[in-house]
What does this fold into?
Amino acid sequence: MNVHRWNKLSQTPVFPDSFTEEMTSTFEAAATGNRNAQAAVGSLYLQGNGVPANTSEAIRWFEKSAKGGSASAAMTLARLYLRGEYVDKDYEVAISWYETAASSGDAKAMYRLGGIYAKGKIVAKDQNLAVFWFRKAAEARDAAAQLVFAIILRDGKGIEANWGDALKWLERALDGDLSEENRAVALKAKRSIKQNIFNSVSKSPNIDPAENETAA
It folds into this structure.
């Protein structure tokens, strides 16, 4: 079953008779540069859904979509190369696609990059880059990243400790879509920071901790 590849836009598209109207519309939209349709075509080839499974064609369409600004396509490519699914495992390529997704504003990609540099399993550990990406993801309103960044601020890992800012980020995280497990971690971190502030104020000879609002 041959499916037209649109190597030349002047060519007339050729579709198998088995194509549904929706599939035909998707391929036509992909040919004209619609990045969402291009990602959809990539998925069809990857899964062999309606067309013969073809990894190289899938990657080609995902790349076209990602280069056209689709963060989801870039994330798909990053995941495939990171895990070695359908393609040879390549950490460098995976990170490059995560960066592409991050440059498109994808907070999850920023969070993943932060984790990659914090763990140092597939690249050299770099706390400065980890902090940079976790901060970016937190600013992009990723609740999990806000939690991680708050803990970084609490502990002063790769950045100067700032309990006041840590509390602010924890509040934002708690207002977001945290898992129950992360919500418990956030609440525990919040209590620990308030206790740290209380203990710090208690040791000061000039300040009554009972009068300090933050310690209440």
Remarks:
- The radius of gyration is 24 Å.
